């Protein structure tokens, strides 16, 4: 019985999330249809944000590698004590 209740709750959460997403998409469609938002500008902005996201992910990866090197160096130095 508990498993069924858990599954029901999970289904309800997914349905509510889908309803919220549908409402967001309908609102976006109304903005585009009314001319309040230019689809070409939106597309260009999306491309710019995706490029920025890629650059930030690369910077994060570089930082992770640098931190890893620092940790390895600290471990080595602590081993000399």
Explain this structure to me?
With 81 residues, the protein is mostly helical. The chain is built from two helices and no strands. The chain has helices at residues 2-34, 39-79. The longest helix has 41 residues, at 39-79. The chain is flat.
Give me a quick take on this structure.
With 81 residues, the chain is mainly alpha-helical. It has helices at 2-34, 39-79. The protein is flat, with a radius of gyration of 24 Å.
Which key phrases capture this entry?
mainly alpha; 81 residues; 0% strand
The shape is: flat
Q: How far is the first residue's CA from the last residue's CA?
A: 59 Å
Largest sheet: none
Instruction: Look at the structure and give the mean pLDDT.
Output: 93
DSSP summary, beta strand count: 0
Low-pLDDT windows of residues: none
Task: Give the number of helices.
Answer: 2
Oligomer: single chain
């Amino acid at each position: 019985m508990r498993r069924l209740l858990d599954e029901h709750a999970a289904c309800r959460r997914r349905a509510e999330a889908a309803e919220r997403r549908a409402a967001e998409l309908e609102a976006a469609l109304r903005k585009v249809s009314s001319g309040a938002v230019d689809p070409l500008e939106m597309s260009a902005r999306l491309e710019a944000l995706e490029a920025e996201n890629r650059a930030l992910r690369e910077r994060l990866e570089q930082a992770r590698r640098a931190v890893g090197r620092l940790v390895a160096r600290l471990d080595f130095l602590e081993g000399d004590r």
